[in-house]
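subagent[fold] <- orchestrator: predict structure for attached chain, return tokens only, no commentary.
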Amino acid sequence: MSIMRAQDDWIEILYKIVGDGLRLLSRKGAGDSISVLGPIGRPFVLSPNRPNALLIGGGVGIPPMVFIADYLREHGGNWKPLAILGSEIPFPFDAMPSRLETPWLDADINRSMPLLESWDVPSRLATLSGFDGCFDGYVTGLAERWLETLSADELAKTAVYACGPTPMLKAVAALAAHYELPCQVSLEEFMACAVGGCAGCAVRIETPEGPAMKRVCVDGPVFDATTVVWDA
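subagent[fold] -> orchestrator:
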């Protein structure tokens, strides 16, 4: 489950029913109450001097990329987000042909997320499952299609933000390093307490003082990709 959008008095959560907790949540209706503790942890920190925001989301990591796009839309400025979304199961929305041009791609790779399309945020979809109109491959392959078309000046204005399964994030981090781009990743870990008490979600992070175990729930979930020890 991930938060996809938020306003002062509501949040929108995208979830897949796995286990009793989410099954019970799925039975809640309009007007029902639940107990929520938050916000907790550290979010993405956007870089206004790098307005080319490359948003890469895989699976349950798709909603946080929508969250960033919504934030950029609300706050204006000269942001130029591009969302690249991947899934091996049917996407949690009805993919639609895009009216927004992506000249760096073949014309038949044109499926997009309707919500982002309505915000004039270009999005393209990647999969290995053969979904119509999607890029046949990983999100990193699709992202590189775009990155390799950018000039040095445009690369200097680009930053990467990603959320998804760990193997995907590791590959995104490597891609960003290859192009010398700053990259922030939101890590996925099982969280038992979510308030930093149990340390069950700890990951190995490089710090100025040396390697340390950091809790994803409160020290993250967002980390600089260059600090994550991916093979720990």
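orchestrator: received. Logging for downstream: Helices lie at 20-26, 62-75, 114-118, 139-147, 152-155, 166-178. The chain has a mean pLDDT of 94.
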